[in-house]
User: What shape does this take?
Amino acid sequence: MRFALDAKRDQDIASRLAQIFEKACKKVSIFPEENTLIVKVCSKELVKFLQMYVEYKVDKNNQKEKKIVVGRDWSSNFQYGLLAGIIDSDGHVHKHLGTEIKTVSSSTFKAILNMLNNLGIVAKTKRRKSTENSYSKKDCYAIYIPSLQMRIYEDKIPSVKIKRFC
Assistant: This one.
């Protein structure tokens, strides 16, 4: 399994990923590739987990879309950890701790909202039409967790990006 991160901005995230997998006794290597930092992990368990909880469906335009299947048996701690991973990969944390997560996948958007609801975290949502010059021609779904909510939950969400401002 490979994780691609921004080489300049995300060295702390690469270190955190390595720490998590090394704690689980997994072989981890980190190496640069152009402007990207690659974190390579050997884990059959991770692959099996992803096969169980990430489904792929084909949309009407014949494109694959990922769908996260939120497990009913997931503990709150696991959901906080998954939320941290989503924030660290696809989120933006502002200096005042307000946090925004954007996705073009409606099913991922719904899964994140479901998880936030399970955890009692209140968020605001927006759907934005794609602009003419955007990379993706799909609508963008934005989830904004206000700073007040983030301050309540910041100690439970083990996000590297959140820790940058605490």
